[in-house]
Structure prediction request, 884 residues.
Amino acid sequence: MTKSHVDLIISGDYLLPDATQQSLVKKGAVAINGDTITALGESVTILERYSTDRHLHTDYGLIMPGLINTHTHAAMACFRGLADDLPLMTWLEEYIFPVEASRTPDMVYQSTLLSIAEMIKSGTTSFCDMYLFSKEVARATAESGMRALIGEVLYDFPSPCYGDLESGFSYVDDLFEQYRGHPLISITTTPHSVYTCAPELLTRLGRVAEDHGSLYSIHLSENLAEVNTCKDRFGCGPVEHLHKLGLLGPQTLAAHCVALSDKDIDTLAEQQVKVSHCQESNMKLASGTAPVVRMLQAGITVSIGTDGAASNNDVDMFGEMHTVAKIHKVDRMDATAMNAEQTLYAATLGGARALGHQNKTGSLAVGKKADMIVLNMNQPHLTPLYNIPSHLVYAARGADVLHSVINGRILMENRILQTLDENKILDQMCIMGQSIAEHGKD
Amino acid sequence: MTKSHVDLIISGDYLLPDATQQSLVKKGAVAINGDTITALGESVTILERYSTDRHLHTDYGLIMPGLINTHTHAAMACFRGLADDLPLMTWLEEYIFPVEASRTPDMVYQSTLLSIAEMIKSGTTSFCDMYLFSKEVARATAESGMRALIGEVLYDFPSPCYGDLESGFSYVDDLFEQYRGHPLISITTTPHSVYTCAPELLTRLGRVAEDHGSLYSIHLSENLAEVNTCKDRFGCGPVEHLHKLGLLGPQTLAAHCVALSDKDIDTLAEQQVKVSHCQESNMKLASGTAPVVRMLQAGITVSIGTDGAASNNDVDMFGEMHTVAKIHKVDRMDATAMNAEQTLYAATLGGARALGHQNKTGSLAVGKKADMIVLNMNQPHLTPLYNIPSHLVYAARGADVLHSVINGRILMENRILQTLDENKILDQMCIMGQSIAEHGKD
Prediction:
């Protein structure tokens, strides 16, 4: 039999195409052509059918879908650990907003590179970002070869990036124009929140999203203070407020969703809104625990986000899964809540669905984009091995990821980044950190 | 000036002698003679005053006290991921007790080696263990060179280790005899709990502890079911029950302490009982969240334990700190609760105090035992660096630990274990895991 040639074959002792133990293939392989998965299954079969010049095999390696981080602010990596153990509003108003006021495009570019380095090294293959100077976020992302949805955050007050709001809308138009047809980067509309954006801003951005068929990503019901502010101003909570404005729908990606009423959950479910659950940030800022189990029961697509490194303080999706699987058990006093497979689903195909990428990413299947990671399972904390989703959620860490393939391209091999100069990024961020620390002392 | 000779000098870009940012020494070093810290401070000073044949320097390295895990069951590592997402009693009675019934000394020995490998690789330098076949636990520990307190768990029903209870007491006597004067291993008395030990057993073990001046370590008020069982049997909760039996005191190490009344907290504080807080296990088994903030306010020494890998599912104290610092914020809806320094203290000097080792371990000081770890801080998730306790609690992971020194001996260098054969341990545990999995199918 003549073998077909493919660009890349990834093989290892274990292949987990989706979030279930049932999907496990022992001694598995994935054949990749260009950006796409051509075939997958038992190594012996794949290697019989396909030849390649590039075969990356890992003894004890587990091949799995890359993790999808549906809510982050990559460029906040430079504020990691700058201000901790503070409530959300104090943290934002006294620490983050002041340092952000003096941000420059270069700071955003460099910090995004840092966060992307961390994301790749901890198993994330795509992310959804919301921040200032997002052209710089997109530039860094494009250089890295990661997959991302990126939006320029708009709010009522002047932005250090674009100045007045009218210029903000032009900036967003530019972004859509610049990345039209880009293989890895999509642009989203990203109003900050109902408490920082007037109804006119929210609805106008909604029209922009509609025009471009883009996601509409927003912080929603992050804590009780937000709900109370919204009730004071608009006579209803944030979910109802957005709903009345006609802004809830299948393209809406709502981050946080902590302070929800039962009615809010029903509304989100009816409108097919997607949720990004950011538990570690919600814990660190004492925002609360999102009612994830009830949201899942209502049929809502729940994905996982790390939020920015300033309120987490990492962007490690393995750590986030670990927390998500455990917090809902104790929150509901039910040890069966958020089991390992549900949690892994939220971080993979759940994430893909939240981003509208379910036909592209989130699981390994023929015809999907080749976004995958390989973990080293031959380690004390992953031994013995009875159930892979259990290990991935309860024991694995970002540092267990050896290789990362995004869109068919190897972005990390044996923990060495292939498209980014890690040492250069770290050196530059040390210098930036010193400058931020000194600025903070003024 | 003539230099004094020391056995070992450890140096790095950062030296954090205790759990506070204030203690930070930039470009620091520790001089070690035998098992003891001779001097510490700025590298330039230490290297001026001391010569050595063995100088382990790490660029970007952070030298800090090793972490102290005050409650674990090391030999349960072989059950990691065997049964998840189940309530405590179902998990114990339907999964753990049945597989434990057929445990052999060799399984305990091998599993302990695995857990010790994981502990060293994630920064723990001493631990307090409670399990069956504890002579095997002690043998594995002695071989590894780790510091530990080890106890044979006693309960009313026959043990697969010692058989009837009378033999259990002889087994404990043997243990005390065997390890008298051991430089690294101390023996503790370890009744399982108030719901598995009759009052006579509890008090008799109390006398054994008194005779040997040992710790009295017990699971206490782990969940509401335990409290209710105790109330049904003895007319009061577990804390009051032990108190009435005269078994609470400064040598009592109570693990879990989740379901506590205000009066219980007062009693624990008055009796100077030490607490081992095992939050991840308490979350995974939906036991609840221990009132740690209130315990600390009452003046109780709170330390941190991982519990066994079967209910965690790792023994990574960095992960545990991460969870501890965050859960109490959301549990109390107070972002200032359990700040980074408090959490780091609980995992270092708090742990040492819980084990009665405060003059030996838990911080780096002249005359203390040389138990320390060195982390690689030159990584994306630890950059930039504003505050070291923040990074250690909110961003660092076990895999960041490069070197481990225990009792003046290098047990890990550049992540290679020096006293244990990691690959051999992993191979043997894979085989054991297959056998346990097959046994589970019977």
